[in-house]
Design goal:
globular, carbohydrate metabolism, Immunoglobulin-like, Rossmann fold, alpha/beta, nine-stranded mixed sheet, 22 strands, 417 residues, 2 domains
Amino acid sequence: MLPLLAVLGLAAPPAQARTGAVPAATLTEVTGFGANPSNLQMYVYVPQNVSPHPAVVVAVHWCGGSASAMYSGTEWPSLADRHGFVLVYPSVTRASKCFDVSSPQALRHDGGSDPVGIRSMVDWATRTYGADTGRIFVTGISSGAMMTNVLLGDYPDVFAAGAAFSGVPFGCFATTDGSEWNSACAGGTVTRSAQQWGDLVRTAYPGYTGPRPRMQVWHGTEDDTLRYPNFGEEVKQWTNVLGVSQTPAATDTPAAGWTRTRYGGTGDRAPVEAISLQGVGHNLYSWGMASRALTFFGLDGDDGGTGSQPPAGPCEVTAAVSTWSTGLTASVTVTNTGTAPVNGWKLDFTLPAGQTLTNGWNAGYSARTGAVTATNAAYNATIAPGASVTLGYQATHTGNGTAPSAFSLNGSACTVG
């Protein structure tokens, strides 16, 4: 499988820890974490302000990647800092640097190989941090996306939901000759009925009758590594497993060239959510997509995943928008209504569907669509009590030229004026 875009560089060598909690805000290797038949490495990132009974997100790298590359090349650490969850990064030691999603052992509950090692990592994190066992999630890219499908099939009793970026259905990559690669599946020529795909998942854990994890899948229409037909097969599989209709309950366009379909529900936590990216290849992951996965998981509020908004903090935001046929300019003013200065700020907001940021000023911007974090410039980092800063951006739109409806300053919701 192709590695992720070269822009995703490696992090510095991580620290090491053998027992107990790991150092905060540092990618740390953990050894001796439990059963590990395929000799995976385990790395953990725990934010400085980890939540009581935190959620756990397992982030699985692509073929040829590593835990360090997944850590440095995605925004999951910054999201953990903001929302207090624990990150677990499995890392392959075999020469291919690909996860085993093919062997008979990998495709059954407690059968062996990589899934067993990853389950042990989750158990370690749960024990060590008193994690909420109802909020264990997994996400991955390419080989990691395939492993996301496998883990949801093998361990429906462990994971609450998954988000797979450029993957294939559970069992599609199966081989019996020891090969890690299945050309027919990669080429998009393996098709089954929804019932057949669902039966593959159910057979992985015979006798299991409990709830099944929700699934979010992403795929580019021009993927030449794991061909686009796999996207539709994933949708067939997980709608069947979750017992919902293959007819979308909702369809929208959250960004230019994206088509999002939701099955079995219309909200952010529908049983199955599928995002198709027109004209995009295998390396589809871009900054901001993890925030959308976080929303699907239900971890985008500091509320234990309940979806309620935190109380308004000592801040007020006013936003004025000037629109034209396909574009807009927004001016956002943030006022410190508290009694203490704000020294360094991050303003979080979500662009309305169809808007794509093209330019910004008086702040650095983390993403072009969806969830955006605007970070102070050097010259406006301090906001004195009663004082304000103004930032702005330009964006294109596909019909919705409104301002964001909610803003948070350093994690606290602001009053919107």
